Input
Amino acid sequence: MLKKNAKSRSEYVARMNRVIAFIDKHLNEDLNLDTLADLALYSVRYKSISMKIA
Output
């Protein structure tokens, strides 16, 4: 069980790092939620909710 949680967490961290790197690289451009969700491999709805929480 612990290994599954660690794997899930590391996958989540990797996804979020991809999104952060993309945002950092494209700060001077219009960013849209669809692109960020695709990078994170999440649906737009999930990404929208998680962005509001953060």
About this structure: The chain has a mean pLDDT of 78. The chain has one domain: 2-53. Residues 2-53 form one domain.
